[in-house]
Amino acid sequence: MPTRELFGKTIEFDDDGHLKNFSDWNEEIAKELAKEEGIAELTARHWLVINYMRREFPRLGDAPTLRKLTKESGVDTKELYELFPKGPMKKAAKISGLPKPKGCI
Prior knowledge:
- The protein is mainly alpha-helical.
- It contains 5 helices and 2 strands, in the order ββααααα.
- It has one domain (3-95).
């Protein structure tokens, strides 16, 4: 398992680059991970998705499905792809501090 130093804290990541521990996440880490994924700034719409995913993860034990997210978060599929281009669920999960969703390749 790779580890990295972020904001004075040693963070463990899995082999896919996702945080190993849900509780290590914070907004600063999210912003850094977003930059690494090519998202220069997290807007209020990004945070809507991120916060929704973080609320659902403990209850579901996994990231919500694309259908569930678009149905319940207020962000439709087209916008989700605009916010998190080229693999929105995987990128959104990574930035949210969640493991790679089970349905993602």
